[in-house]
């Protein structure tokens, strides 16, 4: 039978690893938000452009698709798309298969902004990636330790 102390210690190691991962991830997300703001782009617009531009080839990118990818309600996604269209970052194009639907496409201005942000993000990830990977490895190790102690 496991001792409560060992079980608590394994749980504590797991919580430490999760806390560190969350801290590292939040640091990267804060960088991303600042980078978007520096090019006069709302961070959600950056995420929208990224999802539209990074969708699988041949996909029809609709507002419903964007809402799902961003975790937004449909009406919030519509407002975000409207703002991005007004700023010349996206265009709406009719779906050739179904005229009732509208596809979203990134404009050349939107692609320029994304290219700049992508370069910044890649540079930043060179520093963050090893920390994130290390945190994930610590989570996996702590979880194995916790499960191993539970089965004894």
Count every beta strand, where a strand is a DSSP E run of 2 or more residues.
Answer: 2
Classified by CATH, the class is Mainly Alpha
Helix content: over 70%
Strand content: 5-15%
Biggest sheet features: 2 strands, antiparallel
Q: What does the overall shape look like?
A: elongated
CATH architecture: Orthogonal Bundle
> Which residue ranges are poorly predicted, with pLDDT under 50 across at least 5 consecutive positions?
none
Distance N to C terminus: 6 Å
Helix count, DSSP H or I runs of 4 or more residues:
5
Explain what this protein looks like in three dimensions.
It is a single chain. By secondary structure, the protein is mostly helical. It has a single domain, classed as Winged helix-like DNA-binding domain superfamily/Winged helix DNA-binding domain (Arc Repressor Mutant, subunit A, Orthogonal Bundle), CATH 1.10.10. The chain is 73% helix and 7% strand. The chain has 5 helices and 2 strands, in the order H-H-H-H-E-E-H. The protein has a two-stranded antiparallel sheet. The termini are close together.
